[in-house]
Amino acid sequence: MFRFTTGEKAELYGAILQAFGAANERLETALGLDDVRARLRTVGWLDAVQDDDLQEALRKLREWQLLDVVQNHAENYRTAEEYERRNLQYSLTRRGEAAFAGVEHALAVLASTGALQTAVLEAITDRLDELYVLLGDHVSSDRRVFTTLQELEGHLEALLANTKAFNGELQRLLRAEGADLATFREVKAATVAYLQEFLVNLDQRGQAVASAVERVEERGVSLLHERALRGAELPPVTDGDPAPAWLERRRARWDGLQAWFRPMDGARPRVEQLHDVARRAIVTLLQVLDRITESRRRSSSAVQDFRELARWFAAAPGEEDLHRLWSAAFGLGPARHAHLAHPDPELVPSSGSWADAPPVEVSTLLRTSGRTERFTRTGKVRDIGGIKAARADRARKERAELEAAWDVLGTDGPVRLSGFGILDHTVFERLLDLLGRALAVRPDGRGARRAVTSDGRVEIVLRPLPEGGRAVLRTSWGRLEGPDYLLEIRSPGAPRVVAREDTG
Hints:
Elements: H1 10-25, H2 33-42, H3 51-63, E1 67-71, H4 80-86, E2 88-92, H5 94-111, H6 118-136, H7 142-175, H8 181-199, H9 202-219, H10 221-232, H11 243-261, H12 270-297, H13 302-315, H14 319-330, H15 364-369, H16 385-409, E3 415-416, H17 425-439, E4 449-452, E5 459-464, E6 470-475, E7 478-483, E8 485-490
Antiparallel strand pairs: 1-2, 3-8, 4-5, 5-8, 6-7
Helix pairs in contact: 1-2, 6-7, 6-9, 7-10, 7-12, 8-12, 16-17
InterPro entries: CHP02677
Protein name: TIGR02677 family protein
């Protein structure tokens, strides 16, 4: 199918297919010889092409089943020459359309860089919410269901394609060697900032998509596909009913959506894996930059020294120069311990051999670091008793404030969030922390959300109210308004008390 992309005339073959593709965009399905020549100029082919060469190229494309040819019997021909030039009409086959689309897609992939776009996640949530409303309205248009489903699948494909492309570029960036430090620092800083911006509220966006998927599934995915099939208005085909294959593709796309945001088998959603990939990439980019910075910070290294020395040996003019270079590079030099002497030098005759002389003790610091020992006054040890006492007192105060807050927030049973009313601001901060922990957890089968504090001492159970409602909490700093919930705050090990629901 892609044989036209190789060989001496590959550019001419590609230009001809591009000319037919441009004609198809204008709903011109058949081109004659003169039409092909004219179209070649519009797609950027400016070289002169003889009729024989053009006909040979068209023949090869027919041989590869990329073009089809028919005789135009409806045309009126005035001369035999006009008949020969205008009789044959060429058009793209299905195989030719696929080949041209494949090349266009390959060029688009090479030119693309990929992206992590939170706007796509929000668009997926919006389309799912719209489908939920349309499925609940029996008088809604099936065509609207079809177009909304097409938009949803388009956003999902864009998410997958951009994520794969961006991850590939990111891994190639991490494996890049020999990059300029300034360029890499700039790219690294921009990439890390981009990833950090993408990770902001990613969990909440993923949870929003999962909740929207669950709501649509409550209305029925099979109903969604049936209505979309009616709205698609598929044309009849010669080889059978196209509906089963169309429905199978829709089910496969929905399975992919579930795998990303709400797996049915209890597996981990892929959007969470994307979260881990982004965080690991940030850490790895910072580590790579540190290694490059550290290697550039050193004035020289043993590897660089030996490579430079090898170049000097290779450029030496003669053997004597090689010996002098070897002596200069690897010969004996002055020792760091040459200044040391015996405690009583007069006992060691100066005429004696150094091999017979008694050894001189060399300190460990000089052998390991090359520095001599210096004996100075011992540094004064700072008294940190006051600091420790202040820290312990502050910790006791914070613990007392925390215990007091838990005493105020503790409930003997389920109560409404709106029942707290006016709170001290410190207690309000503890309550807000508990609510944030609970709302970040996926609800169970009954809609309840459970979370505990980091020390495991306090547990909160959050349930939605059937009738809804709003809750207003006031502190000395202001007021907070939001959805009302039924909540229960207790210690995980404490016995559960059954209490009447507080309607305050």
